[in-house]
């Protein structure tokens, strides 16, 4: 695990952000560039999950980001899926030079819907924008897809540091608005009387998640 934070810093918001997408699209390099201003051409696949913590100021609010970098390989999906819980937002990354990684974005969206809380904000990120001659997906095609899915979209390059900071700042601003809307809705809703489920013949027990048997994942 990697750490990059100061314990005495106070904050207005704490957000858990997941970075997901196919293996090799550049999820780790995006996080390293954002959290440590570091870039390496050496590819090292993420095993399971890793995370960085960084505090930024957005719209005069101090936001502490706990950003999780997840493995994209299928063999880790069962482990990674448990980290979707309680996520405040998800970045889905694809490689602008890899058409297949863009085609798989729809599958990653379904993963978010399956495991994350309802209406979890999603931010679509195209990586490796500096590789102009190797680009495989047009901006127009991506923008049309993003609009159809009602997603914000930004193209980035970890190598040149293009839009990396902006990507996280824009998404954090979205999360602030989303969180405020949820809190406002909660305050407006009438309070429901508490119910003791045990009186209704139901048992509340520990439901520890895990992977059971073969490739079936119980969450």
Automatic annotation (TrEMBL):
SUPFAM superfamilies: P-loop containing nucleoside triphosphate hydrolases (SSF52540). It comes from the Eukaryota. Keywords: GTP-binding, Membrane, Nucleotide-binding. SMART domains: RAB, RAN, RAS, RHO. One of its GO terms (cellular component) is endomembrane system. One of its GO terms (molecular function) is GTPase activity. PROSITE patterns: RAB (PS51419), RAS (PS51421), RHO (PS51420). InterPro entries: P-loop_NTPase, Rab, Small_GTP-bd, Small_GTPase. Gene3D superfamilies: P-loop containing nucleotide triphosphate hydrolases. The keyword Membrane applies. It is found in: Endomembrane system. This is Uncharacterized protein. It comes from Adineta ricciae.
């Amino acid at each position: 695990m990697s750490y990059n934070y100061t314990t005495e810093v106070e904050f207005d918001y704490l957000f858990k952000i997941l970075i997901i997408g196919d293996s090799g699209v550049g999820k780790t390099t995006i996080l390293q560039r954002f959290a440590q201003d570091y870039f390496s051409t050496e590819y090292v696949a993420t095993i399971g999950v890793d995370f960085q913590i960084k505090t930024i100021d957005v719209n005069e609010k101090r936001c502490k980001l706990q950003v999780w970098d997840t493995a994209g390989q299928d063999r880790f999906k069962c482990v990674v899926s448990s980290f979707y819980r309680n996520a405040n937002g998800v970045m889905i990354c694809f490689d602008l030079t890899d058409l297949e990684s863009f085609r798989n974005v729809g599958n990653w969206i379904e993963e978010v819907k399956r495991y994350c809380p309802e209406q979890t904000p999603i931010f679509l990120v195209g990586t490796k924008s500096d590789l102009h001659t190797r680009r495989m997906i047009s901006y127009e095609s991506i923008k049309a897809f993003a609009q159809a899915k009602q997603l914000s979209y930004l193209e980035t390059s970890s190598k040149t540091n293009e839009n990396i900071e902006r990507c996280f700042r824009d998404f954090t601003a979205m999360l602030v608005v989303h969180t405020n809307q949820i809190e406002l809705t909660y305050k407006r809703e009438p309070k429901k009387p508490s119910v003791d489920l045990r009186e209704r013949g139901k048992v509340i027990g520990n439901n520890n998640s895990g992977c059971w048997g073969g490739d079936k994942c119980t969450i």
